[in-house]
Amino acid sequence: MKASPVTVAALARQIAARVAAFDGGHPARVAVDGAPTAGGADLAEAAAGVLRDEGVPALHIAAGMFLRAASLRLERGRTNPDAYYEDWLDLRALTREVLGPAGPGGTGRVLPSLWDPVTDRATRAAYVTVPAHGAVIVSGVFLLGAGLGFDVAVHLMQSDAALTRRLPAELGWTVPAYGRYRDEVMPEYQADVVVRADDPRHPAVVTAL
Predict the structure, then answer these.
(1) Quick check: 32 and 144 in contact, CB under 8 A?
(2) In its keyword annotation, does this UniProt entry include Kinase (predicted)?
(3) Cβ-count burial of 64 within 10 angstroms (0-12 exposed, 13-18 middle, 19+ buried)?
């Protein structure tokens, strides 16, 4: 495995160039997949900003605003790593409200957020129409290998040591879920762009897996 260091800004430009080259007749649906400690949300927003500067309408959506209601995702307890992996993200809602409308034959009318995990209530966000030459960039965890309809996928890798070191202590219980995802899905082989992000301020693009 070879990893080539790159700045965050240059990485955002690389991702934006790949997205801009997509010509599928509908908005490019992009996954920026990785633990919250890997800097995926910032990278997704940076790539969206580059696209906007180049005249490509781009919308960054946080998958964390498409969680299932607390009564469902916490049914097996508040610190169950298997539930975190299997039950938290509302895959159907993300498909129905974002990836389906942005996909082939869709209306382009997507919902930027659905559920606020802090208030455990619907966000009541307004729909946004993304034109066919635009892009929808979704950042979050466990986005690959679940049958979600992405056209471009970026995976941010972190070692167990880096993940454990960077996670807040109260989220330490989630570490086994990331290990399970890595072992079962092997997301680095599902992605178009793989990035070593042990230190998200100093990423490195991985080639020759």
Answers:
(1) no
(2) yes
(3) middle
171: left (phi over 0), alpha (psi -120 to 50) or beta: alpha
| CATH number of the domain to which 43 belongs | 3.40.50.300
Residues 62 and 125 sit within 8 Å (Cβ to Cβ): no
Determine the structural domain holding residue 57 and report its residue range.
2-207
Domain count, the chain: 1
**pTM for the complete prediction?**
0.96
Give residue-wise pLDDT tens across range 46-88: 999 999 999 999 999 999 999 999 999 999 999 999 999 999 9
Q: Distance between CA atoms of 83 and 158, rounded to whole angstroms?
A: 21
* Dihedral angle sign, alpha carbons of residues 114, 87, 36, 193: negative
